[in-house]
Design a protein that fits this description.
Elements lengths: L12 H20 L10 E2 L8 E2 L6 H8 L18 H6 L6 H12 L2 E4 L3 E4 L1 E4 L8 H4 L8 H7 L6 H5 L3 E2 L3 E2 L2 E5 L13 E5 L2 E6 L14 E7 L2 E5 L6 E8 L9 E10 L5 E10 L16 E2 L9 H11 E3 L4 H4 L1
Parallel strand pairs: 4-17, 5-8, 5-13
Antiparallel strand pairs: 1-2, 3-15, 6-7, 8-9, 9-12, 10-11, 13-14, 14-15, 15-16
Length: about 325
């Protein structure tokens, strides 16, 4: 599927051959370095979680910051669950459900949801605290591989390039933040940057008529598509200018991954006070995997049905827009 900012170009025979050679080379590299399944052997107590989390989740400063954020008391706490349910209860109430589904329903009904504590207006931009490279299929099929499959499966649709990293929030007129800031990372497009943070900004589009398309629409703007006008720019900055941070973190619950369940939270917070403005908590359950025993299907795992909102990356964007309204209202929020 073509992203909103892309134009489709048919590859030439030469580029097709080059791509095939690159694919073979990549496959050889992968074959020489087989994936090692993740095992959780060490758990760490953190301020922002009721249960210790796998040590692998605290891999850098921003991850540790995410797990240190304390949620207001209004956010539901973990509710104990008995895996040894009485026979009469299993037969009477949910005999048709597997143990994993019963546990998933318990987590959804007692913990999943969205809580908004403060909304802010005229927000120019965000600090997206935990950008990552797109995860591999090996990671996303490992029951213990991804930290937060809900978030990370969206990263599989993005390349680690400036335009893709910025257009979640900067894609006028749909998404009208002026900038996104990120921590400096060891990635090719930041190779010449020495400062501890980067700022992405300046991307604009212009409407163009869609040739050969006629639609009866109430608004003439609906007859147009968009093309790049100015490119996404990247500069290094010594300190953050954003007032608000946007981060994510996994949730650890007893026997969750053993039952094919994974939880996570999106959090918007004040960078100075570390007060949480809003949190969105979700759980996924992976179905039977035709890839074989010991595999997961996090890419298409089911979500809690009681949590309102959009599916996928639209869910993440609109969560931000509802909490921190841009100076110029995005088209997505006018609908």
């Amino acid at each position: 599927m073509t992203k909103p900012h892309q134009r489709v170009r048919m590859p030439s025979a030469f580029t097709t051959v080059i791509a095939a050679v690159a694919l073979v080379a990549a496959s050889a590299a992968i074959a020489s370095e087989p994936y090692i399944p993740v095992k959780w052997t060490q758990f760490v107590k953190v301020e922002g979680q009721s249960e210790p989390v796998p040590a692998q989740w605290l891999q850098d400063t921003e991850a540790k910051m995410a797990y240190s954020l304390k949620l207001p008391d209004a956010v539901p706490k973990r509710v104990p669950y008995s895996f040894d349910q009485p026979l009469w209860e299993r037969l009477w109430f949910n005999a048709h459900q597997k143990a994993s589904v019963r546990y998933f329903n318990h987590l959804c009904s007692t913990e999943a949801g969205e809580w908004i504590f403060k909304k802010v207006q005229k927000v120019e931009g965000f600090y997206f605290a935990r950008p990552q490279r797109e995860p591999t299929t090996d990671v996303m099929t490992d029951p213990y591989g991804p930290e937060m499959p809900w978030m990370q499966r969206e990263l599989m649709l993005l390349s680690d390039q400036p335009l893709d990293q910025g257009w979640w929030f900067i894609l006028p007129p749909l998404y009208n933040y002026h900038f996104v800031e990120q921590p400096h990372r060891a990635t090719d497009w930041q190779a010449n940057i020495k400062e501890p943070y980067v700022r992405l900004f300046g991307y604009t589009r212009e409407p163009v008529p869609v040739p050969g398309v006629y639609r009866v629409a109430p608004d003439p703007k609906d007859w147009y598509s968009y093309r790049d006008k100015t490119p996404m720019q990247v500069v290094g900055i010594p300190a953050l200018t954003a007032k608000y941070g946007y981060t994510w973190r996994g949730l650890k619950r007893a026997q969750d991954r053993e039952h094919g369940i994974a939880g996570g939270e999106l959090i918007i917070y004040d960078l100075q006070t570390r007060d949480v403005l809003a949190v969105r908590r979700q759980f996924l359950i992976a179905s039977h995997n035709p890839r074989g025993e010991g595999k997961a299907m996090w890419e298409v795992a089911a979500r809690c049905p009681n949590l309102p909102g959009n599916v996928g990356s639209g869910e993440m964007k609109k969560f931000a827009f509802r909490i921190a309204e841009p100076i110029e209202l995005s088209n997505e929020m006018k609908k």
